[in-house]
């Protein structure tokens, strides 16, 4: 499996995503944001960090990067795209997922472990988890409070689009939402960092099945 | 400041922070009256901050050598060998005065500066720490400073993408008129990829890279060398603003460039900006530089040579590259949307010539400016307070009736209480190397690709240093070594940041001298060399007393196998508990 | 020409920052403050032949970048000064 | 009464945010944009008997909290609407 990790100026979890995907057995390559095409990859990761310094709004400037048009094309073909933290913010800004992420209700950056419930295993990223499994994955963000209007929240529920919910909502997200996918399930955005818990030295391995799911999915195609 | 219209005189020199004697010495060195730009250069180069004029003679005698020391004091950061041709570069530095004026930006730019110190060495920053001191939190001003500083450190480090893995915070009203903000960074570098701040090779181009120059922080270095007084507010417009995003780009561009063989030498433009970076690079190589100010990328209109030379705008570097490499360098920086301009060339006459609009604005011999900087052996005297505090009779204290209550009160005091509120605002896991998270004795960061890990801690019991400066200095080093050892690692080297009050007061100078003596003795005894550091004096507001003597020490150690690491928490019921030591 | 852009949160979107500021103001003794909403104020210098052309252009900038219309509204004022 | 507060960076203070936005606008083809500065826009509802009293009060709030006067300036407009 070839995984492309998109690097925006200011991305800083790009190497961590590369590390986690490689550990799961993928071949990875970095895709510079100025490239017009994502090239020959089977899945795309938009990593965390502070693209463009998070200036204006998190993800707002990155959504206009040259590579994003091709990421949108790739996603519309039903192929897997995951945005983690800043990557989630970019997916929302670019309209690939509904809603918005706002400043944490604590108004502070928050780096700590959270406990998540897996709400659906139908996506290419969650098939190796059990339905309703509770996993520990850290968050590290300032703007992670998920917002969508009532109508959208109902739509998400009705279409099985909520993928992870916080058990201990750390930031004021509506519906305790930590991660959502699109209708098809091939585009996932989540605030917590699964790539940070993929080996025991790092304090946990609950993030590993996400990358392994992706590999299994791609190989099964 | 309309410094341009000012005529150079002893009064102006004093306004710039020089003494009458120092001005006479300048006249003697130059054989003429300096130009305004020249006077500005002298004033920052001879400030306490850049010249270490009050501390230098006492810093001599720090043990600085060991088989594993690759670079000792004197460069942007010190470097030690951790085996297999792998090295770590690290340093701690103060940003006390800027943080007092504007806590968020002051602390943020402190982090930015120390990160640059590390990556100019060719090392990718893999960990940061900080050591903080504030007045008690019942005062809203102190809460404002504390929360602003923490936010600033978090903002800059998180955005840059370095994990902030440790630090310390103390609260004591002794710091309410001058908080302390010390920032530490550690980077990883292969032994054959270390870069130094040297301007070698006659004719080689001098290049300016990074952000544009504005009027930020002019006279910041001299500000860091003076007491605060009621008028300090007026110095506010000189506050520098940080841009961690640009710094992240600068890091990536520099590291990419360092994979090529275009660079000869590189240095961060920190305190005293273009001035100290160019003088120090030329001095280390025994060379001269001709600098063309018309080529300096400026952010504002109408900047004068004086302002360009003294600006402390952030996220800038000065480099010397090989002749013919200019375009290749520019191409790499253009990829990262950064400026890179040729602003001068290396000469062999040992002089700094600064040219602007066809005129020579400054023409100075470098050696005397750097090496004939004043050195003071300031008088010191044991403070009378010491007799009083040391003769304290502990028998006058009676055990409290309710020990549980006392314990709860102790645990509830901000200095002892959990620091989670602080470190949860720092991304301490980015780069997926942090194997001991904040909250234990020392942080531990693994080196990917093997089993090794680097442990680090920053410590200082400043109340102890106040009660007995010599023993306090010793204890500080010992505490750091213990923290490293308790994590399973072997302490290898330290970087120190010596925060004291006004050195012109003999009692303060005594604290300095004695703390330093204590550090030296402990380092020698434990065979832990000092490989980098920083001195911050004048940490007091006039009339309101100085901070406690605070010689912060950052200790770095090595563990060969991270699976053998130890953390401080009790692991399971039934385990035995031992008390070790005297 | 100078365009002033005011970006504000839509009605009904919670504004934690505004709420926190209101809380601090009241703690500071400003009990006469009863509501605070925080938005962005952006000044854009734009080359245009008329104020209406400038406004048009800046509206496009808002749509594409300056505002997130899922949660924000924007308002533009153009002055001839530069 | 509604007070509108505009908080802007002082002249000469680096505005990294404005710089990044300008770069992005130009990449998007808005070459007619030549400068961007970003500030805050704050609406404060305040109880006061007159517009001038309200303005006075909000100025105190700016000094104490809403603006960081080390690097920022502020401007206040009061309207009688509420
Ligand atoms: N207390 C100290 N202990 C050891 N080395 C020191 C100490 N203070 C300063 N140094 C060394 O002196 C050199 C100059 O320090 P400094 O002026 O702070 O560097 P910079 O150019 O980054 O501002 C550095 O190499 C530093 O490591």
From TrEMBL, chain A:
Question: What keywords does the record list, in alphabetical order?
Answer: ATP-binding, Cytoplasm, Glutamine amidotransferase, Hydrolase, Ligase, Nucleotide-binding, Purine biosynthesis
Which reaction does this chain catalyze? L-glutamine + H2O = L-glutamate + NH4(+); N(2)-formyl-N(1)-(5-phospho-beta-D-ribosyl)glycinamide + L-glutamine + ATP + H2O = 2-formamido-N(1)-(5-O-phospho-beta-D-ribosyl)acetamidine + L-glutamate + ADP + phosphate + H(+)
Family matches, as CDD domains: GATase1_FGAR_AT
> Can you list the GO cellular component terms from the UniProt entry?
cytoplasm
Q: Does the keyword Cytoplasm apply?
A: yes
User: Which residues catalyse the reaction?
Assistant: 85 (nucleophile), 193, 195
Q: In which pathway does it act?
A: Purine metabolism; IMP biosynthesis via de novo pathway; 5-amino-1-(5-phospho-D-ribosyl)imidazole from N(2)-formyl-N(1)-(5-phospho-D-ribosyl)glycinamide: step 1/2
* Gene Ontology MF, one: phosphoribosylformylglycinamidine synthase activity
Predominant location category: cytoplasm
Q: Which GO terms describe its biological process?
A: 'de novo' IMP biosynthetic process
Q: What is its EC number?
A: 6.3.5.3, 3.5.1.2
Its localization reads:
Cytoplasm
The UniProt subunit note reads as follows:
Part of the FGAM synthase complex composed of 1 PurL, 1 PurQ and 2 PurS subunits.
Role: Part of the phosphoribosylformylglycinamidine synthase complex involved in the purines biosynthetic pathway. Catalyzes the ATP-dependent conversion of formylglycinamide ribonucleotide (FGAR) and glutamine to yield formylglycinamidine ribonucleotide (FGAM) and glutamate. The FGAM synthase complex is composed of three subunits. PurQ produces an ammonia molecule by converting glutamine to glutamate. PurL transfers the ammonia molecule to FGAR to form FGAM in an ATP-dependent manner.
What protein am I looking at? Phosphoribosylformylglycinamidine synthase subunit PurQ
Q: Which organism is it from?
A: Desulfurispirillum indicum (strain ATCC BAA-1389 / DSM 22839 / S5)
UniProtKB/TrEMBL annotation, chains C, D:
Q: Keyword annotations for this protein?
A: ATP-binding, Cytoplasm, Ligase, Nucleotide-binding, Purine biosynthesis
Q: Its GO CC terms?
A: cytoplasm
UniProt xrefs under NCBIfam families: phosphoribosylformylglycinamidine synthase subunit PurS (TIGR00302), PRK05974.1 (NF004630)
Task: Fetch the PANTHER family from UniProt.
Answer: PHOSPHORIBOSYLFORMYLGLYCINAMIDINE SYNTHASE SUBUNIT PURS (PTHR34696:SF1)
Q: What interactions and quaternary structure are annotated?
A: Part of the FGAM synthase complex composed of 1 PurL, 1 PurQ and 2 PurS subunits.
Family the entry assigns = Belongs to the PurS family.
* Name of the molecule in the record: Phosphoribosylformylglycinamidine synthase subunit PurS
Organism (species): Desulfurispirillum indicum (strain ATCC BAA-1389 / DSM 22839 / S5)
**Recorded name of the encoding gene:** purS
